[in-house]
Amino acid sequence: MPPLLILIDQQQGIRAPHLGPRNHPDAERRMADLLAAWRQARAPLLHVRHLSRSPSSVFWPGQTGVEFQPALAPLPGEPVFDKQVPDAFANSGLERWLHQRGIASLLICGVASENSVEATARSAGNLDFTTWVAEDACYTFAKRDFAGQPRSAEEVHAMAMANLHGEYATVTSSAAMLERLRTTGSPC
């Protein structure tokens, strides 16, 4: 069985200009390709939606930023898990839901690389799920490091992927996962 595809925080608010420069401008297209392939294969998938606790957040409930981007929105019947912290496993029932369905492997994509993607992949690895991250179907934004040094979105993303690869997950590309799905019927 293919891994369960998890799309994280593909909501309209993540496109807010004030979030600044980002990497992987084609990440949404990569996510859409994965989503289409998983749907066509009738493989398991789910969507994660962030509902912020902060009124200043782009994901504050009750405003358009919390709504899914149309191209990546769930279809009727596709599961949606809500979270209020970066980790999709925290207080969401996701772990139990996966175990009840016998799902042991996950493919994660979404935003932000060093935030919700990394937090969710770390938990998945720690909970003993076989975990992949499609790095080109993830993105983040430029930010300052702890010492105040400006870091590009590419640097922030690369460090997040380095933090995950080999310890919590296998970091790969969307093309590699699509090719494995096409040739073997399962990217596992």
TrEMBL record:
Question: In this protein, which residues make up the domain named Isochorismatase-like?
Answer: 4-175
> Which named protein is this?
Cysteine hydrolase family protein
Organism for this UniProt entry = Pseudomonas benzopyrenica
Q: Which CDD domains match?
A: nicotinamidase_related
Spell out the SUPFAM superfamilies in the cross-references.
Isochorismatase-like hydrolases
* Record EC number: 3.-.-.-
The answer on whether this UniProt entry bears the keyword Hydrolase reads yes
The superkingdom listed in its UniProt entry is: Bacteria
InterPro entries linked to this entry: Isochorismatase-like_dom, Isochorismatase-like_hydrls, Isochorismatase-like_sf
Q: Does the keyword Hydrolase apply?
A: yes
Question: What Gene Ontology molecular-function terms does this entry list?
Answer: hydrolase activity
